[in-house]
Amino acid sequence: MINWTSSFSVLHEEIDEQHRSLILIMQKLGNCLISKDLDFTVVLDILTELDEYVRVHFSYEEQLMDKYDYPELLAHRMQHDGLRQKLDNINIFDVEDFGAFANDTLNYLVNW
Q1: CA angle, 78 as apex, 11 and 97 as ends, to 5°?
Q2: How far is residue 27's CA from residue 64's CA, in Å, rounded to a whole number?
Q3: How far apart are CA 3 and CA 32, in angstroms?
Q4: How big is the CA angle at 70 (ends 13 and 6), to the nearest 5 degrees?
Q5: One digit per residue, pLDDT tens: the chain, 112 residues?
Q6: pTM check: above 0.90
C-alpha cells in the first residue's frame, strides 16, 4: 500500500495536503481490493471522489504553476491531461469485473 512520505513533498503546504488526499483515495481503493468490497456503488463513489480531486487539484496546481512561471508547466499539464483523459474515457456501466477494474486503476495511479 502506498503511504505519504516526506519524499512526496513539494514544499507547498496546500499542494502537499492535496497530494495526501490523492494517496487517501488510492488507499481507499487498495483497501477495497484487500477486503474484496467491490461493487458498483463502492467503485462509483471512489471514482467520483477521484474525479472531483482531479478537477479541483489539477486546476489549482496549474494556476499556481502558471502564476509563478513554473518552467515545467507544459510537461506537467500533459501528465495531468493523461489522467483527465483516462477518467473521461471510463464508463462505469461498461465495467464487468470491478476487482480487475479497481486493480488496473490503482496500478495506473501508482505508476502515474
Answers
A1: 100
A2: 27
A3: 16
A4: 35
A5: 789 999 999 999 999 999 999 999 999 999 999 999 899 999 999 999 999 999 999 999 999 999 999 999 999 999 999 999 999 999 999 999 999 999 999 999 999 8
A6: yes
